[in-house]
Amino acid sequence: MCAVLTIATITLSCAQEKKVPENIVKAFEKEHPNTKVSWDAEKDGFEAEFELNGKDASENYDFNGNKIASEIEVEKSEMPQAIFQYISEKYPKNKIKETAKITDANQMVTYEVELKIDGKKQDLLFSSTGEFIKI
Q1: What b/e readout covers 55-94, taking b as 16+ CB neighbours within 10 angstroms?
Q2: This model's pTM is above 0.85
Q3: What is the C-alpha to C-alpha distance for residues 18 and 8, in angstroms, rounded to an integer?
Q4: Torsion of Cα atoms, 22 then 26 then 32 then 33, to 10°
Q5: What is the pLDDT of residue 10?
Q6: Three-state SS string across 33-101, please?
Q7: The pLDDT value given to residue 31
C-alpha cells in the first residue's frame, strides 16, 4: 500500500511541474475570460477543467493551442432517447452516474454516459443520434 501511495505522489508531482504553455492559456482565456480553470497535462496536450453556466465543463487543447474538443455536463433530457433504450437493454441494473455532451473541433457531437460496471467506472460513447459507439 505504501508503494502505491509513493507512486501516486510522484505522478502528481510530475504532472504539477509541467507548465501549461502560454499559447494554450491565451487560447482558453480568449474564449473564457476571467474563468477559474484547473489544468491537467495529457498525452496530446492539456485539458482545462472549469465551470460554464453552472455546469462542469472541460476543453482539450493540442500543444499548438488548438481546441480539440469540449465537454459539458448535460441533463438526461438533453440527450437522445435511444441512448437510454440501449442502456436499459444492455445494462438494466447499472445506474447512470454522469452524462455529458462532447463537441470536437469539427463540431461533431457525441454523448458520454458514465456507468459503474462490474465495480468500475466506465464511459459509454454514443453518436449524436444515440447510436452506441464504444466503451
Answers
A1: eebbbbbeeebebebbbbbbeeeebeeebeebbeeebeeb
A2: no
A3: 16
A4: 100
A5: 32
A6: CCCCEEEEEECCEEEEEEEECCEEEEEEEECCCCEEEEEEECCHHHCCHHHHHHHHHHCCCCCEEEEEE
A7: 95
